[in-house]
# Entry
Amino acid sequence: MAETKSHIGTQNKKGQTYTDAWQMMHEAPRNPSFYTGSEVIKEALRRASCDVMIAYPITPQSEAAALIGELFAEGYIGDYFRGESEFAVMSQCAGAAFGGARVFTTTAGPGTMRAMENFPMWAGARLPIQMIVTCRGINSPLSIQPDTIEISYLLNTGMLVWHAETAQDFFDWILKGFMVSEEPEVHLPLALCCDGFFVTHTKDVVNLTPADMCLPPYDPYRSPVPCMDMECPPVRMMRDPFIMKSNYISYATHASWQQEIWAAIERSRKHTIKWINGLIDTENTDAEVVIVASGTAVSQGREAIRLLEDEGVRCGLIKVKSLRPWPGEEIREATKNAKHIFVPEFNVTGWLAKEIKATIPNSERVHAGPHVCGGMTMPPEIIVSEIKTALGLRSESLAGRGS
Amino acid sequence: MTQYRVLPGPEHFLPPAAASMGIYLPNPGEAHINGVIVPEEKAYEEAARQFLMAQVPTIFPGPLVLWAWNEKAAKKAAAVRSLYETLKECVQPGQKPMLIPMPDYRPKYPKINPEVEINPNHPNLTIWHNKIDCCMFIGVHCHQANLSLKIIRGGTSCYTVAMCAQAGHEDAMLSFRDASVEKILKLGEWIRKLKGTVKPRLTSAKTSASN
# Structure
């Protein structure tokens, strides 16, 4: 077996230089480029020293999956193929990760739901797979439009869950995400989510790292569990699992195993803070009115704040970047002055508002809304209207024109 | 700042993972004792003291040092053996140092033989059987080490030390990180240095390690 050794400064077969990840992400020059979110995924992967990418088409991630196929054809990805379904893809990702590969995949909406059984398995097996989730509607009647409801299902899988607002977030966090999730004391899968179409299919200026630099390769010998070995867990566990034995020890071991997954999420906290510069971003949190949001709802919130300022209402903003680990302390601190906390969301249940209510004291301060879903846009004016109504200020109806 | 401390048990029917109670891992050059970050030097002294105080101080080497999968592992194995020999030389009559391997992680059914091995899924059986009151994990994959350390804390009164090659273990009562041959040997030096200065906790078999 190989000794662990540094590859920094050496070149891969494409002539890219393996570069210290911190230097590459924070010190290397950036090149402004005008790309869609899907193209940004491809460009991040070009620099990610990824061993295996497994694809399956589902809107709105299909374009990104296809573009990564081009990267494979160019020689930047070790292996690339299409699975038989999302469930198969996620199982195949597990196989590749068990074998010690850096693994990447993309999915969306019903695909996420179809593959769901695999995600706690990934976490339990401590597989640092990265999965892009370009969120969309999941329920019947069919919708391919933006909707973040699927994130709520991911929150209790044991995966790390981040929610990108912009294509720039996406580019940086794909690369940084590998660094966090591959730390030996973390070593968990990452669901890097964005709002489908809003991020994947719109163009934005994104500052890219040099294409001739790439991340150091994944070192499976730092894993907290052995690489694939048919006589050892986690593989062995699957044919001789605890559930086959009915005794206290088996139950206690499984309980301890589950706790270890969530302990690993806690351990990811300091690395996540270091790499993405905090679990939240804040602006003007001394204001009495604060918007807390994640994903593109942050952008809409920011615009609503500008409109409110024009009307003399001062409002702060909290951008939640990481959902797992959950920034509980950070949100408690950032909302301590707020009398009204608004949580605009692109889903019907308001899962982010529920998380915040469970986190802060005096949770009656939280106004869970406005909500839109099923592909509806969220005009900043409806956030403004929600806030003004709650504050007892006059607000014009935005619902229609009347008869 | 958490008030939680990682102490010898038996702690609870299902004790929490220390990381979930706000215990953080040490940074390079540091260690932790009971969940409190300390300079590494202090941890050597405390680990040596705990070993010399114990009735059955035990080293649990895991697969990463039991198998010669690379040159470094073989050197670490030799250092672990040396540490064990040092321990034997430095204890007093009545103390019984042991070296019990964790060769793999398979759940052992119908029952483990606790005299010859320890298993991460039911480590308490080996602790109880041998009345081990202080142990050190080395060369165990981090996930399995954490499982073991937490189960030991939950159901026994054994003092746990982790000599971890990665970032350390919150679930041990004392943890080093970035373990190397030098660090293993340095712990041996501290044991030698404290030889004769620590009063062993010699008790009857009945009242030793909680069972």
